[in-house]
Specification:
With 243 residues, this protein is α+β, with helices and mostly antiparallel strands. It is built from eight helices and 14 strands. It has a single domain, classed as Aminohydrolase, N-terminal nucleophile (Ntn) domain (Glutamine Phosphoribosylpyrophosphate, subunit 1, domain 1), CATH 3.60.20.10. Helix content is 26%, strand content 32%. It has a seven-stranded antiparallel β-sheet.
Length: 243
Amino acid sequence: MCRLIGAVSRHRAPVADLLGDDLDPFIRLACEHKDGWGLAFRQEDGTIGILRGIDRADDSDRLQHALKHQLTDMAVLHIRMASPNLAVTVNNTHPFGDARAAFAHNGEIRPVAALEKLIDPDLLATAAGTTDSERYYLAVRERMNRGVTPGDAITLTAQAITQSSDLVVSLNAMMLTPTGLYAYAQHDPHSEVIGRRGPAYFGLSYRQEEDLVVVASEGWPQPAGRWAALPDGEVAEFPALHP
């Protein structure tokens, strides 16, 4: 299970400035979510850049440098708690994607074979790692390759996974594209993981200001007057604010 945070700003600035006061408490969650980190951001030319590491986010000089010096107007940061039996490798580290999109997931889907049936074999062959999360992304990517909009691609993929998989703990995800940030919240309230972690563990919330939107997992104080919950089973789209 993992933690996610994303931001969309009207102004380009270091990622740390976009996330502001939420960054430090988010990074401190790496004391438990210690199996790597990944950062996606829109670059000046409009493409998506991705950095990943397998060290702890709160002890990574490379991540700290990127947070302080990478200028952007949109970003997603993921810190990983690896699911059982999934290796801690760069290829298994979120976000997955390329210059067109970056995708990060918080949850667990079984069996992986059910996911693979949703992906064209040629696209599935591009998978670099062994995670359910990467295959979730590739199923979304396949629909996007056919011209489906990112938001609809996530929704349709989530529906297909729910219908075809034996276990869907959570399909919470964030996807960053050159045109915006997409956030999707869906989890099984009866999952044994919910029992272990508490009912709010898979909540996704957002706070919105005139020139900034921040979307994030639960895990640190998010006052109700400042944060609002994302509806379950719906894609929330936060379009780019910067030209």
